[in-house]
Write a structure and sequence with these properties.
The protein has about 575 residues and is an alpha/beta fold. Helices cover about 35% and strands about 15% of the residues. The protein has 17 helices and 22 strands. An 8-stranded mixed beta sheet has the order 1-5-4-3-2-6-7-8. A 5-stranded parallel beta sheet has the order 20-19-18-21-22, sandwiched between helices. Strand 3, helix 1 and strand 4 form a beta-alpha-beta unit. Helix 1 packs parallel to helix 2 and helix 5 crosses helix 9. The protein is globular, with a radius of gyration of 23 Å.
């Protein structure tokens, strides 16, 4: 098939059609809908976002692009299905997650949300309007009327097997899957699809009914994966939820959601850290992963290649083994667009790495950064895991480089790359932002993403046969494979004897009451990702510190007051 060369990045595009009118709400920063927007009210709950507390329902919402979790597509689908979605979402840059959620809302549930991408000058003009309207493929505001172009999938280069699926030869489920993949390819400016070797499915958390309804709808259509596919953490301990206080309604729904994906062919790995499994991607392997931290780790640390695929598209990719050949699948798009020079504190502990990831995301919210100045350090895989996860909360980029440490850390920066600094004072400011609430700790939360076997060994060693403080609950979440290793090594029993609960299948992004202790007022975590999302997800205050500091809080019931010693250097006038 021939290719129509329309540069969607320079045109006013309408990716999902729906007539709409509403007040204009402009967000200066991107927003993760998962963990950042309440799926039952449409209110921004991300306490770190400048528009915290704003209600998105019925508004024409502008943001440069989205950021954060791949699960944002599910939140938008849920809001659309209950009538609380924005009237339209308008982006200035490439955006996949919310766009895909709107496509699914329209295609499978007949609840469209208009999705636009505008050139910068048009976007800026619209941001100054109070009200805007989308009608008959036109955007109207103030005294302007802008014709909106639609993507064209008919001119995408497809192979014979793709065309057979589109014709319905492999059933309705695969036909829908390839049609959505092709539409996303046109949204992303791709001209062809690429084969991928494995998948990872993220949309299996029962954060709302939309995830369950989508999965069961696809299962009932006969959907099946065709490549090896792992599955993310779910909302319950699949085998033990009956004894953990969940209501039968919630437990059964969460189990049905997990079972739907397993019955479609996904392995019951139930981990948000598939890179901790025995069989992991290799350098330059094209894969089709979802889950933001996993995508960033795969690209950055393993050197594999995957876009940050939205929830639901991950299933479609697993069903077809095909993905749009765009973004960081292409070598030219893996080049750093921002160089970040890091000032290194003396004698820092492992809390430094998630803080560094979070700050790198704020300095480079949309482009791929490279970290410089760390060449003499020796970060562990756990350090890199925590860095990648925290980076994903503040940046839309699926990849971060580090000179001297990551497979592509040697790549030269682009000609127009920004050069910025991450200073010790930046770390100090972030420490204060991450640490809100009383020193008295009610809950210590380890495992966001899932804790590795090495982290569990270290945490057990910190206790040295001591017991947790009676009024402080400590929970570690892990994948099933790690749990088996812990039991084989005796680590599980050591932690249990210390009063620590280890739970598999779920992680802190999916834990709900009653597994999350109801009487918690302040929690403490070593995760930059959970430090960012925890307040919005739970309503509790959050304290942050190193793995050792979390263990000390478990033992004493108290968080360390003030800055850690490694951030108290007088020579930096702190």
């Amino acid at each position: 098939m021939s290719v129509m060369n329309i540069d969607v990045s320079t045109k006013a595009m309408l990716f999902v059609q729906n007539d709409a009118k509403g007040q204009v709400l402009t967000c200066a920063e991107g927003l993760s809908f998962w963990g950042g927007v309440d799926p039952s009210t449409g209110t921004i709950i991300d306490v770190h976002h400048p528009n915290h507390g704003e209600i998105l329902t019925g508004k024409i919402v502008l943001m440069p692009t989205s950021r954060g979790s791949c699960s944002g597509s599910g939140v938008l689908l849920q809001l659309a299905r209950i009538g609380l979605a924005p009237a339209a979402l308008v982006f200035r840059e490439e955006e996949d997650i919310l766009t895909l959620g709107a496509i699914i809302a329209a295609k499978l549930f007949e609840k469209p949300v208009a999705i636009l991408r505008l050139p910068e000058f048009t976007y800026d003009a619209l941001s100054k309007a109070k009200v805007a309207e989308i009608y008959n493929d036109n955007l109207s505001f103030l005294d302007q009327s802008i014709l909106l172009l639609k993507p064209n999938t008919q001119n995408l280069q497809l192979v014979a097997s793709d065309l057979n699926i589109i014709k319905g030869h492999d059933g309705q489920a695969r036909k829908i899957a390839i049609e959505v993949i092709c539409l996303m390819a046109s949204v992303q400016g791709a001209t062809e699809l690429i084969d991928v070797s494995r998948g990872h499915i993220d949309g299996c958390i029962l954060a709302h009914d939309a995830n369950l309804d989508f999965a069961e709808k696809m299962h009932d259509m006969g959907a099946k994966t065709c490549i090896p596919t792992t599955i993310n953490a779910i909302s319950v301990d699949r085998e033990n939820w009956h004894s953990q206080g969940f209501t039968p309604d919630f437990g059964m729904k969460a189990s049905r959601l997990a079972d739907a994906y397993v019955n479609m062919g996904a392995r019951p790995t139930f981990t948000c850290a598939p890179y901790l499994l025995d069989d992991i991607p290799i350098e330059n392997e094209a894969i089709g992963w979802s889950e933001s931290n996993a995508v960033i780790f795969a690209n950055s640390v393993l050197g594999a290649r995957t876009q940050k695929h939205p929830d639901y598209l991950d299933l479609f990719i697993a069903m077809t083994g095909r993905a749009p050949n765009t973004g960081v699948y292409l070598a030219k798009n893996r080049v750093p667009t921002c160089e970040l020079h890091v000032e290194i504190p003396e004698n820092f502990d492992d809390a430094f790495w998630p803080m560094l990831g979070w700050l790198a995301g704020t300095k480079s919210p949309n482009g791929i950064p490279v970290l410089c100045g760390l060449e003499a350090l020796s970060p562990t895989l756990d350090d890199l895991k925590s860095l990648c996860a925290a980076f994903g909360t503040t940046s839309a980029a699926p990849l971060i480089h580090m000179r001297g440490h990551t497979p592509e850390g040697h790549l030269p920066i682009s000609s127009d790359a920004k050069q910025l600094n991450i200073t010790i004072n930046d770390l100090v400011d972030l420490w204060h932002e991450f640490n809100v609430g009383d020193d008295k700790i009610d809950l210590v939360a380890i495992g966001s993403p899932h804790a590795s076997i090495m982290e569990c060994r270290k945490f057990a060693d910190f206790f040295n046969n001591q017991q947790c403080f009676a009024l402080t609950k400590t929970i570690i979440t892990v994948g099933r494979q790690t749990l088996s290793q812990m039991k084989a090594e005796g680590i599980f029993d050591r932690l249990k004897d210390a009063g620590i609960q280890v739970i598999s299948d779920i992680c802190w992004c999916s834990i709900t009451e009653p597994v999350f202790p109801v009487d918690t007022l302040v929690l403490m975590t070593n995760s930059g990702k959970y430090a960012h999302y925890g307040k919005g997800l739970t309503g509790r205050d959050v304290r942050f510190g190193s793995l050792k500091n979390c263990a000390l809080a478990s033992l004493s019931g108290q968080a360390q007051a003030g800055l850690p010693e490694w951030l108290l250097s007088k020579k930096h006038n702190i």
